[in-house]
Amino acid sequence: GQSLEQPSEVTAVEGAIVQINCTYQTSGFYGLSWYQQHDGGAPTFLSYNGLDGLEETGRFSSFLSRSDSYGYLLLQELQMKDSASYFCAVSPAGGYNKLIFGAGTRLAVHP
Amino acid sequence: KAGVTQTPRYLIKTRGQQVTLSCSPISGHRSVSWYQQTPGQGLQFLFEYFSETQRNKGNFPGRFSGRQFSNSRSEMNVSTLELGDSALYLCAISLAVVEGNEQFFGPGTRLTVL
Q1: pLDDT tens per residue across span A35-58
Q2: Quick one: CA dihedral A28, A66, A105, B100, positive or negative?
Q3: pLDDT, position B100
Q4: Which residues from chain A sit within 8 angstroms of residue B42, using beta carbons?
């Protein structure tokens, strides 16, 4: 089976950098994704790592290390609008478009 | 451009009733997945339909079912509703055939079971 662990809450100030970690136990997967969800909204895709290494998309970067069963989302130059929940998710091998999500990390950005 | 509409947006039912939720992707999206989101269990995969065929199913009881039509629209049905079925039900679409691609989520249907 698959399980993903991420911190439940993270707090940071505007302009800072924050890293949200995701450790996983899985028998096989194609890649690790990150989604953002604001209160009352739907999850929106942020990033996908199919291979080990760093993927950069503007202020957001994501990293995957399969050997360490570990990934992270890095948010730079934090803005108030980044206050949201962030979910890591794996695409299990043979699961087509199925996603298995972590419990989510609630990020609070303060002035 | 990818996009998906879900109806209704809000729904209140009582225990024992059944409910049907609808998901309408913009044309061209052949894969539709459904998820249940609750505070206690988080985001959980229900099932995926591709070209009118269910090709993956999550760990939910048989009360949860779905289908997809030839125009890619999908419905999910929950029979004999229980209080624990209160949740946000999300559908997601993917253009790609291969695994691991970006999923676009609809706004969801908020179901409350009384």
Answers
A1: 999 999 999 999 999 899 999 989
A2: negative
A3: 54
A4: 87, 101-104
